[in-house]
Hints:
CATH superfamily of the largest domain: Pseudouridine synthase I, catalytic domain, N-terminal subdomain
Structural class: alpha+beta
Distance between the termini: 5 Å
Helix content: 10-25%
Number of domains: 2
Number of strands: 11
Largest sheet: 9 strands, mixed
Strand content: 35-45%
CATH architecture of the largest domain: 2-Layer Sandwich
Radius of gyration: 19 Å
Shape: elongated
CATH class of the largest domain: Alpha Beta
Amino acid sequence: MYKTRLLFEKSGAASYISHLDLMQAIQRSMCRAKLPVRYSEGFNPHIKLSILVPLSTGFGSRCELCDFELLEQMEPNELISRMNKAFPSGIRALAVCGTERSVAAVAWCGYEIVWNEGDAAAANAAFSGPPLLVEKRSKRGTKEIAVQDYVRAIEFEQHADKLICRATLKAGDDPLNPIYITGALQQAGVLSVDAVAEYTRTSVLLSDGSNFVQEAAIEEE
């Protein structure tokens, strides 16, 4: 068996594919690409794969990661080429990565957020001031948090009538969804309740802020 980790991006309409539908789209693409992938055993065999650090529906990403196993070794470039011919519009394979690192090592994720309104100076001032308190929801319930406690780095830029944010936010067991950045700015009066946001994940990072992704050849297990 050859453990394989594929780095891919999703954009446009593909950003609105649910987690389950994305997995099914990848499985169908692997079949079309005729990859020698490992299937599960039992009455309903299916391609065994997992998507690391799943995203909310509606988010784009430049750094999606998918783990699976091959029965035969493949050249990374050949695998990428076959998958890109098979993938639906909006999904594109970028690289084959090393598999040594566990997803448990992911501590931060980078995001780019673009709003159709807002002022960069006011946004920077809001995040430099007193704690921005929001109600954070999770499977364990709801709690009040200071958004700044979940932020490693954040900056805002003005591009004509659009406000752009680049932020590194906490991942792992208690992650911060970037929608809470929007909520905090709305509470601070920087954004209106009608503000429209586009979210894109740009990086997956270790605790020291370095890249989780390692480009490598496909490895035999």
